[in-house]
Amino acid sequence: MSSSLSVKPASGQSSSTTTNQPQKRSWWARSWPLALLVALGATGATVAWFKPETHSLDYAVCSANRTIYTVDPDLPNVQCIVIHDTLISDTGDIENVALRWRDRWWSEIPLAGIIRLPWPFNFLEPSLKVINIQPDSIVVPGLTDAHAHMLHYGFKMNLNLEDCTSVDEVLNHLKAYVISHPDILGDPTRWIEGMGWDQNKWPGAQYPHADDFDREPLLRGRRISLARIDAHAFWVSNRVLQLMAPLPEDIEGGLIIRDEHRKSTGIFVDNAMDLIPSQPFNEARAMEYFTRASSDALAVGLTCVHDAFSVPEEIQFYKKLSETQELPLRLYLMGNVNSDDYWGNQIPRLIQHGFGGRLTVRSVKLFLDGALGSSGAALLEPYSDDPSTSGIMRVQPAALAKLVKEFSTDGWQVNIHCIGDRANHVILDIYEDILANVSFSIEELRPRIEHAQILTLDDIKRTGKLGVIPSVQPTHATSDMWYAEDRLGPKRILGAYAYRALLNASPTRMLPLGSDFPVEGINPLLGFYAAISRLSVKGDSPHGSGGWYPSERLTRAEALKGMTLDAAYASFSEDILGSLSIGKKADFVVLDRDIMTVPMEDILGTRVTATVIDGKVEYGNL
What is the average per-residue pLDDT within 122-127? Predict the structure, then answer.
């Protein structure tokens, strides 16, 4: 029951009735939602005002299957890597790296303890950008080719003769090349230069002749100079021979192939190649070759290349380019000057030079012998298939020892081309003598043998004992396996292409891997496959499908380490490159399948989906 009670107002009060009127709410009761929005807005504005710009572009790359192979022995597989600027700032599971990233973000904001909001009002906080790779994909450190030739690759691609299986096929290629280049077609004085022929692939396996070019009317009288696949022999035309006349009877460290009448056949091996006229260095042409080489390298996951023959003009080209723009990939150059006198003062010493610090020059390349394919590898005993020769020593041991000591004293890393067992024996003697001097440290010098292709079993052990770095190319084994044993015989072959033995002998377990492109293909997975299978790309070998001397195979983990961390060590950069470790450069590659687990025959079908250097995508997409 309700009742109504009338109250007479006091003097001065309104006479309106107040009975049953709702009570007015306080200001806070009416305005707290608006106040909260204002507070959140102010906090958000404060967060935005103090937002650390240094973290605005950070991102994580993650694999749900934990197929990020770090090549870090302490943490070989992780779910995520976090990239900050040019470096890897964190690794681990997504929940942990995201939390640590948020903590670092807040730690750089003034008054973070006051303005930081608890859940559920923390939606204003930033979140780490996460890129998830496809389930079948993997991430590996940026791949390095520890022995290659950038400008030579571009040169070869201009006129590639690698697939020719006869002299006639070479002539057909040259004819088509001339017809497709009107400037050359209309001017017979223009040079025709190419690379890639290999007489071992031809019927009879005999060297070609200068007269062969004259069989094709379009080529007759032209200046033709063609490098063999290993660049240790050249085949030139009769017109070039005329320009070279008169030829010396002999040349130290080289060979002029002659017929029964002592007339040159147009084949020049090793040091004799220096007699052939060549076009002067051209910066525009070098840029064309470099652009092609770097583009192809990035497309197959290479982030760094050790260029194993850089003359002063080429070094200046790279230096100038690096000072005007960021090089598309990292280059570790081995300088070379054709002289038996010390020439270290003719090339600059550069450490992480230019924009992005992608250019380094701190090593030199010297040559001791030739190549097995052109019978120039220096052997301790005559060739099994040609007892008339034991190969070519391109420099006398005493002269080489003097150079090695001078370069080592001056702080240069010395990298020496050695194929045959005699060449390897001589250089190990030289290194052993130098390292006996306590003023030289193996860790500081890190001397390398480029190729280390044929060694006695004792010298394989000595390589490890001395701590010398053997820099090898697995595809050389699978390219040469069809004729290597014929040249070397059943005993010497046991110390040839002996990658497992070399790795086991190394006290630091270091075996950097390269390709020697353009001698071999540029794709590093060709070397990965050859190292673990000892098979051709067709899946066969002289010993069948089980591989050529399979006891010398590497494991997949060893092969990956050889083209990442071991290559970094061989270039004094293991502190910043070679593994996906915190604090190192954010160089990595995304592959569309797991090369560490897929069947061996599926490896060569792998495609690169992204190549990243310094945290920036240089090829493909993330």
Answer: 67
